[in-house]
Amino acid sequence: MKKDILTLLDLEKKDFKHLFQRALELKKRHQKGIPDRSLAGKSLGLIFEKPSTRTRVSFETAMVQLGGTPIFISAKDTQIVRNEPVRDTARVLSRYIDAVAIRTFSQDLLNGFAEFSAIPVINALTDLYHPCQVLSDLLTIIELKGSFNDLKIVWIGDGNNVANSWINAAAVIDLNLTLACPSGYEPAKDILEKAQAFDCGDIIVTNDPLEAVENADVIYTDVWASMGQEREQTIRKKIFSPFQVDSNLVKRASDDVIVMHCLPAHRGEEISEDVLEGNQSVVWDQAENKMHMHKAIIDVLIRNQSENPGAPDSE
Ligand code: CP
Ligand code: NVA
Fold first, then answer.
1. What is the DSSP secondary structure assignment for residue 8, as one 8-state letter?
2. pLDDT of 38-79, one tens digit each?
3. Ligand 2 mean position to 210 CA, how many Å?
4. Who contacts 127 (Cβ-Cβ below 8 Å, separation ≥6)?
5. Residue 245 backbone dihedrals phi, psi, to 5 degrees
6. Of 51, 99, 132, 172, which has fewest CB within 10 angstroms of its CB?
7. Could you give the CA distance from residue 76 to residue 257 in angstroms, rounded to a whole number?
8. Which residue is closest in CA terms to ligand 2's atom 1?
């Protein structure tokens, strides 16, 4: 049976582990120039309703490197914009392609697509979640810190889609996660409560960025106004200004703290130029690892589907 990644709660701890192992293996092979054509003859659809540089190109490259074919589908050029029901699109595309990555606004639309899709559906970002981003960021943390166990991971800024996926990850793999957000911009209560119901590590929410970063091993930030919130940009700039990740904030963290940002970055807003370009910033490693993690995701999901078409959900 097919396996989707709509949120990180779709994965168990063992699935995270398997994806990290496979991504590291594929990365090593790539660096040694050993080709891996595990997806020869397969195709991945990419339906995007929002802009993307990294996610789109890294998924497309991942598919090409694994011997398969990516098919980019700009949502505005499909019948979706003329109100063809999502459940019809899902059933039709399931007859052509082997998996689909979708970037859209509504998580409900994504879930609706997955319900009627016979092929694996991957969330490539919605207003609510960005699961693949956090999977690849965890890969970067594993490479740079050896493990994510016993690390203090601190999110600074908006309680947005990427933050929500960090909360889900914390629930499943027991992260020590602190989120410092302006009052009124904390992650949604239901997402936090659902995560806290897991037998997981600490998830702390505060409005004090200075206190939050004390002894942090990882500081993570993201734009103050996400895609679709452009009209709030000016007001958010004012409200979020004490939450800029700058050298004053970073110096309160551990000496070997790493600073992460999913990109695109707005220098001088959520992160200062010197921190983004400084020694502690690992943003380019993060961007690279999106490709290695996306290779692991499509490899695992598509091969699982071909090998166990009738089996219950596994990884
Ligand atoms: N980090 C990320 O998802 O970037 P893009 O919007 O460029 O895909
Ligand atoms: N929170 C950002 C992430 C971009 C990758 C957004 O949704 O625009």
1. G
2. 999 999 999 999 999 999 999 999 999 999 999 999 989 999
3. 24
4. 105, 106, 107, 161, 226, 228
5. -80, 100
6. 51
7. 42
8. 226
Chain center to CA of 119: 20
Q: Does the domain spanning 133-287 belong to CATH 3.40.50.720?
A: no
Predicted model pTM = 0.96
Q: Is 133 in the pocket of ligand 1 (CB under 6 A)?
A: yes
Distance CA 108, CA 113 (A): 8
Pick among 3.30.70.120, 3.40.50.1370, 3.40.50.12780, 3.40.50.300: CATH of 8-129+290-307: 3.40.50.1370
Residues 147 and 176 sit within 8 Å (Cβ to Cβ): no
Find out whether the peptide bond into 242 is cis, omega within 30 degrees of 0: no
Q: pLDDT, tens digit, for every residue of 202-239?
A: 899 999 999 999 999 999 999 999 999 999 999 999 99
Q: How many angstroms separate the CA atoms of 144 and 282, rounded?
A: 9
Tokens of 258: 């790493």
Q: Which residues of 176-197 are buried (b: 16+ CB within 10 A; e: fewer)?
A: bbbbbbbeebbbeeebbeebee
Q: Where do the structural domains in the chain lie, given as residue ranges? A: 8-129+290-307, 133-287
| The domains spanning 8-129+290-307 and 133-287 adopt the same CATH topology | yes
Residues having CB within 6 Å of any atom of ligand 2: 125, 130, 160-162, 222-223, 226-227, 262
Which two tokens mark 225?
């106004």
**Could you tell me the two tokens for 246?**
């700058």
